[in-house]
TrEMBL record, chains A, B:
Positions of the GST C-terminal domain: 93-221
InterPro entries documented for this protein: Glutathione-S-Trfase_C-like, Glutathione-S-Trfase_C_sf, Glutathione_S-Trfase, Glutathione_S-Trfase_N, GST_Zeta, GST_Zeta_C, GST_Zeta_N, Thioredoxin-like_sf
Domain of life: Bacteria
The protein's name in its UniProt record: Maleylacetoacetate isomerase
Record has Transit peptide as a keyword: no
Entry keyword set: Isomerase
CDD domains: GST_C_Zeta, GST_N_Zeta
Native species: Rhodanobacter glycinis
GO molecular function: glutathione transferase activity; maleylacetoacetate isomerase activity
EC number: 5.2.1.2
Gene Ontology CC terms, in alphabetical order: cytoplasm
BP-aspect Gene Ontology terms: glutathione metabolic process; L-phenylalanine catabolic process
SUPFAM superfamilies on file: GST C-terminal domain-like, Thioredoxin-like
Length: 223, 223
């Protein structure tokens, strides 16, 4: 049985970015194996990658001979395998855990899937959506989602320097890549001051900075 | 502090359907409070509901004075609050838990969000998508997702009568509403024999039958 953690990802993939943050927050070293999502029609569709992950999506984590797919399943797995309190990605109380997981889903189910590359490609092929229309579509869903997240965070006594209290959690690991995405789409963020404040606080931490798309080995030299 | 579980949902909401299954599997009784997603522009947008859930979506669970939103967060919460092994919604081993959560996300992130009512409405308003085009769009994402889920299930020694082993889990609670949806969209299911077999096995259980959209108090008399 092989040992060590291997992450199949792509520098710009929001879901892989989440997992990089989680691995860094937990202080786990890992090997990066880039999967280029665009080149040659997408390396994620290649038979050898499909054999590993039939869904043909990133990220995918190898832990020895275990194959774990889906960013949220990977984060929960890492937290269960490495339950040390000081690097916990979830709070200890059930109510806090539910709050963090709700924030996670507000990103991973209600925003991110709608702006994914494959969805934008489908908008183009099925409805002839041009670049401006695809941008409008993406901004629409991010804005809706951020409105709700802002309301959740502002209203909640548990909100601290980070999404939940004074240590970063899974919610922050999901929120930061989504804000990064919003900036790419040039969505004005003035209406989401708490989201923006937390984004900045997270990016002061090495765990987040070293997970950023631009510093990944497969990122192009100048972005 | 009030006691008892209250579920805000809508008979046809896939996400609420998941939670009803989970509550039934855990043997928890609850009060249903219907939120009509279409009538009057959608009761989920009304100020009193927004005060409870700023996102304006269903489901939303009240546990005494706790408000829990997002179907997956609710299911995890129920499993943590009621950890009895015989009604566990997740397996005990980390690998199995990761597998179940990955299947969950394949539905909750990669299929369901793309066929949501609000997304179909946006396709109509932004691209003038007619009913046939919206149906094509919905079937496209369900088919892609079911291909991947079928491959995951067929390939896995842990697959049993249900998605994971011989007892239903969170994965089944997510898969069944998605198959229900696929049937509504008239997606042929011949290519997903394992998905179909598990759907039928689940629907032999009272927990699933009593969660079905048609038997909810807010369902129209004849569907």
């Amino acid at each position: 049985m092989a040992s060590g953690l291997v992450l199949y990802g792509y520098w710009r993939s929001s879901a892989a970015y989440r997992v990089r943050i989680a691995l860094n927050l937990k202080g786990l070293s890992y090997e990066t194996r880039p999967v280029h999502l665009v080149r040659g029609g997408g390396e994620q569709h290649a038979p050898d990658y499909r054999a590993l992950n039939p869904q043909g999506m990133v990220p995918c984590l190898l832990d020895g001979d275990r194959v774990i797919t889906q960013s949220l399943a990977i984060m929960e797995y890492l937290d269960e395998m490495h339950p040390e309190l000081e690097t916990a990605l979830l709070p200890v109380d059930a109510r806090g855990r539910a709050q963090v997981r709700a924030l996670v889903m507000m990103v991973t189910s209600d925003i991110h899937p709608l702006g994914n590359l494959r969805v934008l490609q489908q908008l183009e092929s099925q409805f002839g959506a041009d670049e401006a229309q695809r941008a409008e579509w993406s901004r629409h869903w991010i804005a809706l989602g951020f409105q709700a997240i802002e309301a959740m965070l502002v209203d909640n006594a548990a909100t601290g320097r980070y999404c939940h209290g004074e240590t970063p959690s899974m919610a922050d690991a999901c929120l930061v890549p989504q804000v990064y995405n919003a900036l790419r789409w040039k969505l004005p963020l003035d209406d989401y001051p708490t989201v923006w404040r937390i984004y900045q606080a997270c990016n002061e931490l090495e765990a987040f900075r070293q997970a950023a798309p631009e510093v990944q080995p497969d990122a192009p030299a100048a972005v």
